[in-house]
């Protein structure tokens, strides 16, 4: 099962960085419920955004029903552009507005660089948008590379998930 999940995540990563894209079908079932936890990035509690490790990410992608947004970021990057520093708060605010409608996950690629390379996450932040409400094989997955403002995040949620 993990091989199937990894294959699907790798398929999602084959598009060209710098834009959004349609990609391969995803999966179904149930998994995580958003909550309040301490995030490694800034050590504060944020309702609705869940910091995940590789095992939790794979399990959630395999078993979750509904809408899921995954942010990939690098906690060790010098972030000369400031995009990662700005992205966290923007995603946190969007997660608060869409609590109960969308599950928001964060994965720090510094925790497992080989996994990030397998997913071809080369730009941080990067996003994966998963729609598990569609019947197979019509499950929709999209990806975006680079910083998204609150307005851009909200626009993509509405476009991809019809919220």
Short descriptors:
single chain; 163 residues; alpha/beta; Glutaredoxin; 6-stranded mixed sheet; 5 helices; 6 strands; globular; disordered N terminus
Describe this structure in words.
The structure is a single chain. Strand 5 and strand 6 form a beta hairpin. The N terminus is likely disordered. This protein has a single domain, classed as Glutaredoxin (3-Layer(aba) Sandwich), CATH 3.40.30.10. With 163 residues, the chain is α/β, with parallel strands linked by helices.
Shape: globular
**Share of helix, binned:** 25-40%
Q: How many strands in all?
A: 6
Protein structure class: alpha/beta
Number of domains: 1
How are the elements arranged and paired?
Layout (H helix, E strand, L loop, with lengths): L1 H11 L8 E2 L26 E4 L1 H10 L3 E7 L9 H15 L4 E7 L4 H6 L7 E6 L8 E6 L4 H12 L2
Parallel strand pairs: 2-4, 3-4
Antiparallel strand pairs: 1-6, 3-5, 5-6
Q: Would you kindly provide a brief summary of this structure?
A:
With 163 residues, this protein is of the alpha/beta class.
């Amino acid at each position: 099962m993990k091989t199937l999940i990894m294959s699907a995540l790798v398929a999602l990563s084959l598009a060209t960085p710098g834009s959004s894209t349609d990609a391969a079908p995803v999966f179904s079932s149930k998994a995580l419920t958003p909550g309040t936890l301490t995030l490694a990035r800034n050590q504060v509690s944020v309702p609705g955004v869940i910091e995940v490790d590789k095992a939790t990410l794979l399990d959630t992608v395999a078993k979750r029903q509904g809408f899921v947004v995954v942010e990939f970021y690098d906690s060790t990057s010098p972030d000369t552009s400031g995009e990662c520093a700005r992205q966290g708060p923007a995603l946190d605010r969007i997660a608060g507005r869409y609590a109960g409608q969308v599950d928001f996950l964060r994965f720090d690629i510094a925790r497992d660089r080989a996994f990030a390379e397998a997913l071809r996450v080369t730009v941080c932040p990067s996003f994966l948008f998963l729609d598990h409400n569609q019947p197979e094989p019509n499950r929709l997955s999209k990806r975006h590379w680079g910083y998204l403002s609150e307005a851009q995040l909200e626009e993509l949620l509405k476009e991809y998930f019809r919220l």
